[in-house]
Amino acid sequence: MDLSIIIVNWNSKDLLADALASVQENVKGITYEVVVIDSGSFDGCAKMLSQAYPWVRFIQSDTNLGFAKANNEAYQMSTGEVLLFLNPDTKVVGNAIQDLLQVLRSRPDAGLVGPKLLNADGSVQETCIRAFPTLLNQLLDSDVLRRHFPNSSLWGKRALKTANATPQRVEALSGASIMMSRKAFERVGLFSTEYFMYSEDMDLCLKAARAGFQAYYVPTAVVVHFGGASSSQSPTSNFSAVMRLESQWRFFRKMHSARYAAAYRAAMFLASLLRISALALLLPLQALIPGKRGVVYSLRKWVARLRWTVGTQAWMRNY
């Protein structure tokens, strides 16, 4: 088997059906299998797959395992020489998968490759390539700075700004679509399960880099990524915002040191205080500001982040 496509589903049945349709329509000339694991959502995807895609290998998990554990479990059921970890909220365009496979096989140093991800409106999703997270680029991460200094090495997105269609070496790829040789995936120890969601892709890419594998961005391979389809359904208020902080902190603790992770928490505490102070000044004027609900929403988000920095988000212990 040339390729195993592994998809983790969580309340994304309809999007999953569209993703599989795009795979079936566009992947030609290679042998492949698809392994889908439902991570405890029981959203009806089992019935949908049995009726529309009976050739898909399906695994039903009794609980929500999280992204890393679910992918690892599905990997155990796969047989392909190459693995493609693909989100259910994606659509494969044209020869994207074949292009990724060709680059992975033709470059001796390649351990993992990723496509150009597009938003639903056709614009480029800039998170498809990134620099490895550091305390500095996390502190300076803002739309304003990225807009004024798009080619800064802090962001690792220079390859997106060139018209060069050849594969480009990058530091890290988005977990929405990562193709990796089975050999490389096994050598780095699979996905790290310290994370429930977020940061596991950065962890995987950094482990691969430290093991001597190069990541490549392949601009001719195009995948549409709708984004946030699963995490947005969480009943926990500000789940994504807080989970990103928690996962980033775990990444720093694991990949750097406990002291580095503590510095990150302290920096996020100060950043949250500054944002809350600025938003509080705008609050009395909200009736005069277009999009006033955005001010309230942002304030709540940053309060949730501040609470995480001082350890009062009790629900986080469940993950």
UniProtKB/TrEMBL annotation:
Keyword Cell inner membrane in annotation: no
Transmembrane portions of the chain: 262-283
InterPro entries: Glyco_trans_2-like, Nucleotide-diphossugar_trans
Claim: Transmembrane helix is one of the keywords in the record: yes
Residue intervals of the Glycosyltransferase 2-like domain: 4-117, 169-267
Any GO molecular function: transferase activity
Pfam families attached to this UniProt entry: Glyco_trans_2_3 (PF13632), Glycos_transf_2 (PF00535)
UniProt entry keywords in alphabetical sequence: Membrane, Transferase, Transmembrane, Transmembrane helix
Identification of the protein by name: Glycosyltransferase family 2 protein
Source organism (scientific name): Azohydromonas caseinilytica
Taxonomic placement: Bacteria, Pseudomonadati, Pseudomonadota, Betaproteobacteria, Burkholderiales
